[in-house]
C-alpha cells in the first residue's frame, strides 16, 4: 500500500508541475543526476527510478513558478504534463542497471570456479584474457589467446564462430529472432563445402558470428529457455551510446587497477541481466561486445554460461562438485567447463550417456548430440573414451584437447562425416564393444561381455583365436580390433586384401589460438583424414605417413587415418 501511495503521489506531482500553481517540492534541492549509480537491490533500483522522476518534476515545477501560463491554457498544459510524465517513466525504465548477485550467490560462484586457495597467478590469467580475433590476415577468423588457462573457453567459442562463418555466412546479416532453431538444424542433407578464403571474412561478419555464437551457447546452457549475460558495473553503462575507439578508452580507464581476488570483489563489480528472448539477448550482447573483448571477457563469458545453466544445476551435473572448475596448479579450464559450453551441461566425462558403477553409483557423460564436437589426445593414450555424440557432431568442427591446452580442428566439407560401408561396420562393432565397457574408457571388457558383443555383431571367430583373446580373463579393444582387421568379411571381419576398401582423402584445418603459434598450422592429407596448415599445398597420398600428436587425435575419430602435411607439424600445446 505504501508503494502504491508513493507512486500516486509522484504522478500527482508530475501533473501539477505543469500547472500554474505549483505545490511545495518534495525535495528541497533539485537532484541533477547524469549517471545513475548501480542499484544494489531491485527495490533500490525502483527507488532510484522514482528519484529520477521526482527530480524531473522538481525542475518543471521551478520553471513553472518563474513563468506561470495563463489559466486559459491550463487544459493544454495538463495534457503536456501527462505526455512528459510518460516520457520520464519510459526513460527511467530504459536505464539498464543490471542486477547484483546476492552475497550467497557471489560466494557460491567464486568457490565453484576458483575454489578456496586459488593463487593470484591463476586469477590474473582469467582476468587478462579478452575474446578478440587475430590481427593476422590469414588467421583473422581465429580468436587469440594471450594468457594460459582460459583456452577451454576460447576454443569452444571459436568452434561455434567457425560454424556460423563457414556454414551460415548468409545468415550473419539477419536479425537473430529465430536463432535457437540453429541448435537443432542442418543446412542440408546434401554435401556442403565452405570457402577456404579465410581472409575474406569482414570485421562485421566476424563480429556478428561472435555475437550469434555467444548467444547460442548461453541459451544452450539455459536449456534454450533463458540466457544470463554478466557484465561489469564500472563500464556497462558508460559505453552505451559511445562509438569506435572511445569505447576502448572508456573501458581501459574503468578497468585500470581493477582486480577480482575474492567473492566480495566479484559481487561489487558484477552485474547480470536475464533474458528469455533470443533477440533481446543478441542485442544486449552486441552492445556489450567491447566488454567481452576487454581483458575480463573470457571470465565474464564463463560466468554468464554458469549463471545461464544455474549454479545449483551446474553442481548437480558434476560427479565431484567439491573441486573447482578451474584446475590447479596451472589454472586450466576443466572438462566440465568445456562440456558445459559444448552441450549445455557441466558433466565431467566425454563418453555417451552414463556409466553405472553399481550400488547406486554412476558417472555422467554426454546425453545428446552436439553442434560442434570434441576429440582428445588422452583417448589415444587410453585414459578416456570419447563417445559418438562428441565424435560425430552436426558440423565437422572439433575442440581438440591435449594434456594442457585446447585447440580447434575443422573441415570445410561436410562429407568428411559421411560413412561408407566399411566405416559403418566399424562404428557398429565399436558401439557394441563400448556398450559393454565398464572400465571408464579403459577399452576392455569381460569374457562374458565379449561373447555378447560377438553375438550382436555376427562375428564368428575360430576357437583357437577366441581362446587366445579370452586367455587373460578380459578382452582389450586394440587386440580385438586387430583380429577384426585380419578376419574375412564372410566371418564378420574387415579384412581388405586390396588396401583400398573405404579409402578417401580429405582436408582438415587446425587452429591454435596461442598468440605465439596462431600462424602455426599444417595442412596434411590422410587416407581417411587429415590435418591442415596455412599456405600449404595438399600433400600427395603417396608420401609416407607423418606423425604428430594431432594425428593421434585424428585417429581416434578415423582409426585407419594416415596423415601428411607440409611444413612444421601442427601443435596442440
UniProtKB/TrEMBL annotation:
Question: Please, which domain of life does this record's source organism belong to?
Answer: Eukaryota
| Described function | Hydrolase that can remove 'Lys-48'-linked conjugated ubiquitin from proteins.
In this chain, the stretch annotated as Disordered covers 1-99, 520-549
Question: What is the E.C. number?
Answer: 3.4.19.12
All copies of domain Deubiquitinating enzyme MINDY-3/4 conserved, residue ranges: 110-479
Which chemical reaction does it catalyze?
A: Thiol-dependent hydrolysis of ester, thioester, amide, peptide and isopeptide bonds formed by the C-terminal Gly of ubiquitin (a 76-residue protein attached to proteins as an intracellular targeting signal)
Q: What is this protein called?
A: ubiquitinyl hydrolase 1
Question: What's a Gene Ontology MF term here?
Answer: cysteine-type deubiquitinase activity
Where do Basic and acidic residues bias regions lie? 76-94
Name the lineage. Eukaryota, Viridiplantae, Streptophyta, Embryophyta, Tracheophyta
User: What's the family?
Assistant: Belongs to the MINDY deubiquitinase family. FAM188 subfamily.
> By its UniProt entry, which Pfam families does this protein fall under?
MINDY-3_4_CD (PF13898)
* Alphabetical GO biological process terms: protein K48-linked deubiquitination; proteolysis
InterPro entries per the record?
Answer: EF-hand-dom_pair (IPR011992), MINDY-3/4_CD (IPR025257), MINY3/4 (IPR039785), UIM_dom (IPR003903)
